[in-house]
Amino acid sequence: MIDHSLLDHYERTAGELQKVPQGHGIAADLWEILDELMLDLHLIRHGYADEGYARHVERELTKVCEDASVIERVKALRI
């Protein structure tokens, strides 16, 4: 699940997984999911997604994020 620790790494590296120091055990597939969510949220913010897609993204956030505070932090990221 996406948690605050993963978001810390994501913010520090501006979303570039290859910049994460070795040995942190970050799952590349989870990083990719976060990348996709960031793109989805960007599209929603700029009006490129319809309401149905926005609801889909909300469901995905609920499914993959640890809790509501993580969801809010993901939504607030501007990377």
What topology emerges from the helices and strands here?
Blueprint: H1 4-12, H2 28-45, H3 51-64, H4 68-76
Can you tell me about this structure?
With 79 residues, the protein is mainly alpha-helical. It has helices at residues 4-12, 28-45, 51-64, 68-76. α2 runs antiparallel to α3. The model has no long low-confidence stretch (mean pLDDT 95).
* Major beta-sheet overview: none
Percentage of residues in helical conformation: 55-70%
Q: Say how many strands there are.
A: 0
Rounded mean pLDDT is 95
**What distance lies between the first and last C-alpha atoms, to the nearest angstrom?**
20 Å
Helix-strand pattern, N to C? Answer: HHHH
Short summary:
Helix 2 packs antiparallel against helix 3.
Keywords:
globular; 4 helices; 63% helix; 0% strand; single chain; mainly alpha; 79 residues
